[in-house]
Amino acid sequence: MSLIAKDYIFRATRALLALGVTGLFASTKAALPERVLVAPKSAQASVQLEKEHKAKKRKIKKKLKEAGGLHVIELQKGEKAAQVAAEYQASGLAEFAEPDYPIRASSLPNDPALAAGALWGLQNPYNGGDIDAPQAWEFARNAFNVVVAVIDSGIRYTHEDLQANMWVNSRERVDGLDNDANGIVDDIHGIDAIYNDGLPWDDNGHGTHVAGTIGAVGNNGVGVVGVCWNVRLMALKFMDADGGGHTSDAVQCIDYAIRNGAKVINASWGSGAYSYTLERAIARARNAGVIFVTAAGNDAANNDLLPSYPSSYKLDNVVSVTATSRDDTLDAAYANYGAATVTMAAPGSWIYSTWNGSDDSYEYSSGTSMASPHVAGALALLKATFPAESHVSLINRLVAASDKVPGLIGKTTTGGRLNLAALFSPKWNLELPHEEGGNVQRLDNESLYTGSTTVLRADPAPGYSFEGWTGSITSTLNPVEITVTTNMSIHAVFRPAVQQNEPPVEDSLLPDIIITPVPEEPAEEPPHTEEPSAGEDDPLPPTTIEPGPAIEEPVTKLPPAAGSPTIQIAVSAEGDYAHIFVGVYDAALEFSSDLNTWTAVAEPLVQDGDRWRAIAPLRGGAGYFRVRRTD
User: Fold this and answer.
1) I want to staple 622 with a disulfide (CB 3.0 to 4.6 A). Which of 44, 178, 351, 573 is the partner?
2) pTM of the prediction?
3) 100: annotated active-site residue
């Protein structure tokens, strides 16, 4: 059976590395919980603040005269720097108060390709989609004692960016003898299963590229940096110069990795053929607690329907990885997917890494083969950080910390892409207490760790308005972006909206017509000596108008059915005013001077609460209004 490493290979010159090295020091906003800086507004305020410190049993570490008499306050055990700073800020005595942020050596290594922006999968200088490696490196960057087996086309183990991180077989010497009695002579860095010797030299380039992403030496001033700055890379060769290999050789490599203490295996290769032998070998790795990270495949296919092995084996130590591009989307040009069979995604398009051409050779390459080693490196760091945890526990940590990406929902089991920072930097809670008068929602779903940002939006309920944010932040912006450095509790303040009665909009020609009620007894000189007969379309008789007090209540009676009229109201020649009709909906207002011909005098109302304003017939004309249902 043939196993082929299918990858789109792109070459690039090293001219990209001509850019300079980044500075070595930078400030971060990882708050020291035991200190707060308080700047008094005045000398008198400084005295009052000292009393406050003493009352709270907080010690003044020092005062900085050149900084305006700044108080450096040491907090009591359990106090939160952000909360205490907010307390001092609210006291009215401080010009400002903030946590005492540390200054550290930067976790950005001096490897030129990172500074040049070539390693976008680790740190994307333009937008999201990277794994936020620099934030994670503040807390975890080395896996000295973790062996990662790269089962591939071999590794150029003399490469300037790999040599120091190569695994060394301590039971073997370069003397032409099989010192460890494993049947292979001089297997110092691994084996070549094709020739059954101890020279896993890469004559293809694929394995060297994969190895660089996992563990190119960090902060050595040359080339690139891997997810792990320090790790033990075991070179296990079973693919030839053309990128092809056989199942039996792959199985030999897996068993060698198990015997020699590997805790993570990277397998950036695959086949459409199911092999029981290969599955059993991976199961043996599982029994030894070894995590098997594999590429999902490069056929732009659904692995749920067309399995790709070893990615599709249903073993709980298998992590199947597909590839995303710079814009944080599944690379549809080649990346396989599967809602039930592909675990997660990682950057895989145009990945820059070590190459086999020379000891200082680097190239670009694309494929799920380039995504898989990002995850393998992350798992090596996890194993170094939590050495006693099982493979299941480590994988659970991995997937729980992934960034949920809309384009991966339904394409992977997690809907997520690797986020290294969420794995290792402190995770913070953001409380958004329910407030009467509205709701608050986050506009993203990413994990919250030191230095991460999130956006909040307040949505007032009807009849309420948004006033601002209180708690861990103070702002009136909506939406508002916040940077998380600790646990936070943020309240949105809503207030009942001020109810203003809108004045009637007067007609440009006529004042409002006041419709007066019919008196109990007929007047001596009624304004209408005869009434036209109501048409078939007009079942209700008109109401005669006489001088008298204006009708105060709005017209609320609705027509019984579409097309039928109701509430015909007569208007005298002297009544040059219009009544404001309120609470009539799904209805049209019409006017007639003779009860035969009706003309619309206002736009139809379509919802409850709408109103007609300044409706009037011709100046001085007697006539009638009616409301006609339109729905």
Assistant:
1) 573
2) 0.60
3) no
